[in-house]
Design goal:
54% helix
Length: 112
Protein backbone atom coordinates (compact mmCIF):
# COMPACT_ATOMS: atom_id res chain seq x y z
CA UNK A 1 0.00 0.00 0.00
CA UNK A 2 1.38 3.38 -0.98
CA UNK A 3 1.74 5.96 1.72
CA UNK A 4 0.01 9.33 1.47
CA UNK A 5 3.22 11.08 0.38
CA UNK A 6 3.98 8.51 -2.34
CA UNK A 7 0.42 8.73 -3.68
CA UNK A 8 0.72 12.51 -3.74
CA UNK A 9 3.76 12.24 -5.98
CA UNK A 10 2.68 9.28 -8.11
CA UNK A 11 -0.94 10.09 -8.97
CA UNK A 12 -0.25 13.47 -10.61
CA UNK A 13 2.46 11.83 -12.72
CA UNK A 14 0.05 9.07 -13.83
CA UNK A 15 -2.64 11.52 -14.87
CA UNK A 16 -0.44 14.34 -16.18
CA UNK A 17 -1.50 13.93 -19.81
CA UNK A 18 -5.14 13.42 -18.85
CA UNK A 19 -5.45 16.80 -17.14
CA UNK A 20 -4.64 18.64 -20.36
CA UNK A 21 -7.16 16.57 -22.33
CA UNK A 22 -9.90 17.12 -19.78
CA UNK A 23 -9.15 20.84 -19.60
CA UNK A 24 -9.32 21.38 -23.35
CA UNK A 25 -12.19 19.09 -24.34
CA UNK A 26 -14.66 21.96 -23.83
CA UNK A 27 -12.97 24.01 -26.54
CA UNK A 28 -15.07 24.39 -29.70
CA UNK A 29 -13.98 24.21 -33.32
CA UNK A 30 -15.15 27.80 -33.96
CA UNK A 31 -13.24 29.20 -30.95
CA UNK A 32 -16.25 29.90 -28.73
CA UNK A 33 -15.41 27.19 -26.17
CA UNK A 34 -13.63 27.46 -22.86
CA UNK A 35 -11.38 27.82 -20.91
CA UNK A 36 -8.70 28.98 -23.37
CA UNK A 37 -10.71 29.98 -26.46
CA UNK A 38 -8.72 27.66 -28.72
CA UNK A 39 -10.06 27.00 -32.21
CA UNK A 40 -9.65 24.52 -35.04
CA UNK A 41 -6.20 22.89 -35.18
CA UNK A 42 -5.11 24.73 -32.00
CA UNK A 43 -7.22 22.19 -30.10
CA UNK A 44 -5.30 18.91 -29.66
CA UNK A 45 -6.82 16.15 -31.77
CA UNK A 46 -7.35 13.99 -28.66
CA UNK A 47 -9.52 16.76 -27.21
CA UNK A 48 -11.50 17.13 -30.43
CA UNK A 49 -12.22 13.39 -30.39
CA UNK A 50 -13.05 13.43 -26.68
CA UNK A 51 -15.53 16.29 -27.12
CA UNK A 52 -17.48 14.30 -29.73
CA UNK A 53 -17.45 11.09 -27.72
CA UNK A 54 -18.39 12.92 -24.51
CA UNK A 55 -21.27 14.72 -26.22
CA UNK A 56 -22.53 11.46 -27.74
CA UNK A 57 -22.37 9.75 -24.35
CA UNK A 58 -24.16 12.64 -22.65
CA UNK A 59 -26.94 12.58 -25.26
CA UNK A 60 -27.46 8.80 -25.26
CA UNK A 61 -27.06 8.09 -21.53
CA UNK A 62 -29.57 8.83 -18.83
CA UNK A 63 -28.88 12.25 -17.31
CA UNK A 64 -31.04 13.90 -14.65
CA UNK A 65 -31.01 17.26 -16.47
CA UNK A 66 -32.08 16.15 -19.95
CA UNK A 67 -33.99 13.46 -21.75
CA UNK A 68 -32.03 10.62 -23.37
CA UNK A 69 -31.78 10.89 -27.16
CA UNK A 70 -31.85 7.98 -29.54
CA UNK A 71 -28.58 7.16 -31.28
CA UNK A 72 -30.06 8.50 -34.49
CA UNK A 73 -31.01 11.83 -32.87
CA UNK A 74 -27.61 12.13 -31.19
CA UNK A 75 -25.86 11.61 -34.52
CA UNK A 76 -28.09 14.26 -36.13
CA UNK A 77 -27.07 16.67 -33.37
CA UNK A 78 -23.37 15.91 -33.89
CA UNK A 79 -23.79 16.49 -37.62
CA UNK A 80 -25.65 19.76 -36.95
CA UNK A 81 -22.83 20.98 -34.70
CA UNK A 82 -20.01 19.92 -37.05
CA UNK A 83 -18.04 23.00 -38.03
CA UNK A 84 -19.09 25.03 -34.99
CA UNK A 85 -18.76 22.87 -31.89
CA UNK A 86 -16.98 19.88 -33.43
CA UNK A 87 -14.18 19.33 -35.95
CA UNK A 88 -16.25 18.62 -39.10
CA UNK A 89 -13.94 15.86 -40.39
CA UNK A 90 -13.86 14.05 -37.05
CA UNK A 91 -17.62 14.43 -36.58
CA UNK A 92 -18.26 12.83 -39.96
CA UNK A 93 -15.75 10.04 -39.23
CA UNK A 94 -17.48 9.38 -35.89
CA UNK A 95 -20.90 9.22 -37.56
CA UNK A 96 -19.56 6.85 -40.22
CA UNK A 97 -18.02 4.64 -37.53
CA UNK A 98 -21.19 4.47 -35.42
CA UNK A 99 -23.37 3.71 -38.44
CA UNK A 100 -20.99 1.16 -39.98
CA UNK A 101 -22.04 -2.46 -40.28
CA UNK A 102 -19.06 -3.66 -38.26
CA UNK A 103 -19.82 -1.33 -35.35
CA UNK A 104 -23.54 -1.99 -35.17
CA UNK A 105 -23.39 -5.73 -35.81
CA UNK A 106 -26.01 -7.42 -33.69
CA UNK A 107 -27.75 -4.14 -32.88
CA UNK A 108 -30.61 -2.32 -34.53
CA UNK A 109 -29.37 -0.42 -37.58
CA UNK A 110 -29.08 3.32 -37.27
CA UNK A 111 -30.51 5.48 -40.04
CA UNK A 112 -28.68 8.73 -40.84
Amino acid sequence: MLGRCARGLLLPALFKGSFDLILKHHEKWDGTGYPLGLKEEEIPIECRVLSIVDAFDAMTSGRPYCRTKTIEDALKEIRRCAGTQFDPRLAEAFIEMITSEKFSAGEKEVAT
